[in-house]
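Notebook, p. 212. Picked up where the previous page left off. The plan for this session was modest: take the two constructs that came back from the sequencing core last week, fold each one, and keep the raw output in the notebook itself so nobody has to go hunting through shared drives later. Recording the first one now, exactly as returned: residue sequence, then the structure token string.
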Amino acid sequence: METTPERKVKLRGQGLSATRPRLELLQILENDPRPQSIEEIISSSSGKLALSTLYRAISELLDAGLIETLVSPDGKTLVETTLQATAHHHHVFCKGCDKAIDIEFSDDLEKNIEAEVKNIEISNGWKVSDHSIEILGICEQCTVR
């Protein structure tokens, strides 16, 4: 996990000042690196982030490439840091509690997916910029409820 000075360097390296809301958001996402909902982030901030401030910080950090957002199958926006991401990854979503976790496929499977993406490009005349795979299920906590 990065320290506050390292986060400040990352922000400044992207042309952003190291404001308290930006640092707070990065710390929350690094403390629990799974994709988190806006509600979870607000709760984790213990009142340190107002909703409007959080949305502004998300927009700024998203533009700087320090975080990314994804949309859960039920339409919730989830936020995760890119500072700790080491590889291309996908997500598993719980249909019971809306929790999401990061997963990585084996190199062989990822290569096969990339080959299929190339086939899609060729056969449809598209230029694909990225791909994601959503896996839906029920997490262990929801299974025992």
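Okay, moving on. Second construct, recorded in the same format:
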Amino acid sequence: MNRSLREALVKLEDSGGECLGSRFTPTQKRVLDEFLRRTACVTKLRQGNGFVYRISNSPVFEQHLRELRPDADSANQAHPVRAQNLAFTRSTKGRKSLHARSYRLLKATMPGVTWNSDRELLDLWQLTSIAGALAIDISRNETPLATDRPLWLVENQGLLDDTSWVPEGLHGSVLYYQGQLSERLIEWLCEKKRSPRILIFPDYDGVGLENYARLRKALGDDVELWLMPDWKRKLERYGNSEVWRNNLKYVANAETSLNLDQEPDEVLKLIEALKLSGKALEQEAVFLVTTDN
């Protein structure tokens, strides 16, 4: 409510103290009507087929506006976005709250994994051994960082912490993206050929399929959906129907976005198996070994 009221009062002030009702949203009109009944510093007058709002007591109006908006200006533009929000709305999340920088964790899976940055080699394995992982700034699309080894994108931290699941012949780097692929990460991957082989290994559910579809749309054949060994039996044994049901809308989004005629057969088989079983399979199942009981 405070946000709608603040926006309405700012709009009224910016209009010189009088503003047509048609310029306010239904929510703004509702909170403004409540505000004028409570404070009597704004009046509502009939005008033609509509009405206007007018400031009738400026000192009281300005006092209430200061409560909602401590600084009249949107703070110093040199300040971080959330600091500007705090100055303008008393809340870091009061308006657009995306940080200027965005970081992702990157880890090598074996010795010899390097990244190139303007012909300078970055020994990712050495950094992994020392610090556990490297934080890279994906908001800097122009960065020349690239590797000649496979790049894995994983959804859950467990697969970053323990990379024993990475198959022989596909060792390289693992990047942890935490649940949802951000547009920033997709843009970073598109800006430059970061790796000769990009493999996304998500949970096999609606969110995972939609993230794969978004990557396919952006990168085309440069990205692969990796299927863990023995995924069919693992789906049967460890699949979760509640997770699948909770993500059905993302399944529909993925199927709409994907060009199914051009998808690899194994991807189509996975999607069909997930739908027929009504279960999702979380990626940590890669650590489990299925045996016949």
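Notes on construct two before I forget. The chain has two domains: 2-69, 103-287.
Flagging for discussion at group meeting.
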